[in-house]
Design brief:
This protein has 345 residues and is α/β, with parallel strands linked by helices. It has helices at residues 11-23, 35-39, 60-81, 97-112, 130-144, 163-178, 193-201, 218-226, 255-262, 288-299, 302-313, 337-342; strands at residues 5-10, 27-32, 46-49, 86-92, 116-123, 151-156, 204-212, 241-245, 267-271, 276-284. The chain is 41% helix and 19% strand. Helix 1 (11-23) links the parallel strand 1 and strand 2 (27-32). The longest helix has 22 residues, at 60-81.
Amino acid sequence: MKREIGFVAIGQAGGNIGKLFEKMGYTVLYINTSEEDLKTLPDAAHKFHLDGGEGCNKDRAKAKKLLAHNIEKVLEQVLGKVPQKLIFTIFSAGGGTGSGIGPMLTDILQQEAGKTVGAITILPDEKESVKAHVNAWDCVRELADISEMGASFFIDNNSGKGKIKLNEIFAGLLNDFVCIPEKKASALGNIDRAEIKEVLSTKGAAIISRTSKQDTTTARVIEYLRKGIFADLDEEKAVKYMAVLAAGGQAVINMQTLQAEFGTAYDIFQGFEAEQTICCLSGLRFPFSRMEKIKERAMENQGDIIKSLNAVNMNPMSEGLDLFASVKKPEKKKGNSRDLLKQFL
C-alpha cells in the first residue's frame, strides 16, 4: 500500500510531516517558496523551489501568484516524481505558502492530473496570530468549495499536544490504517486494499483512532475518535464510510452504537483479531463549528487592529510649521540700489 499513496508537502509545516512519511517509505515531493526551508530537508529525494520565491510571510496572495507563474513546472514535478494515483497534499492552513497554494493545487491536480487528491491540513491554536486565523478561515473555505477531491484530515494544533508530537501521532495513525491489508488475515473478516482506497478517496473530513487490544471497547473507541488530534466534528451527524479493524472478535465493537454516535454509514468495512483496534471514519462534514471559533478568534480583535492601522496611516502633522508667520516683513524698496545710485549722477 505504501507504493500506492504519495504525498505533496507544501511549505515548512507540510515538509515537517512529509519527512515522517518519507522515512516510512512513502514517495514525497516537497514544494516551497523558500529555499531556506527546503535546505532543512537534506535527505529529501524530491524537492522543488518555486522560481522567484523568497518565502511568503503568511501572505496567501503572494503564494498564489508564485504558483500561477510556476504551475506548469509544478505539474511536471508532480507527474514525474509522484506517480501514485492517490495522493495527499500536506500544508498548514494558517501560514502563507501552504495555505495559499494548498487548496488551489489540490483542485488543479484533481482536475488536470487524473489523480484522486486528498488534503492534510493543520489548523492554528488559539494563541497564534490573528493573521493565522484569517488565513485558516480562507484556506478551509476554499477547500470546502472543491467539488471533487479525496478525504481531508484536519489536524488541530489546539488539541493540547505539541506540534512535533501531533505530526508524529498523525503519521503513525495514517500509516497504521494504510497498512491494514498487510496485517495478519482473520477468518472472521478483513479490510482489503480496495476498501482502504475507497475510504481515503471520498470527499469530506476523515478521522482515525488507535486503541490498544487491552483497552478496546466501543466506548473507548468513540472517546478516542472524539478526543484525538483532529478538529472537533461538526454537530450535524454525517458519515459515508466506517472502517474498523478490531482487536478481537465480531462482538467487540458495536457498530450500531458507533453509528448512533456519528451517523448512519453508507458502507462499513470490518476486520478482526488484530493486535490493536484501528478505526477510520470518512465522508464526514468539514469541521465548520471549529472554523466558526477560528472566525470568532480573528474577529474579536478587529476593532483594535483597525484602530492600530488607522493610527499608523493618519498624519496629525497635516499643517505646515512657520515660526515667523506673525513677524511683520519690511516693505520692499522700489527699485534696486543701482537704480537709486543713478539719481546721484
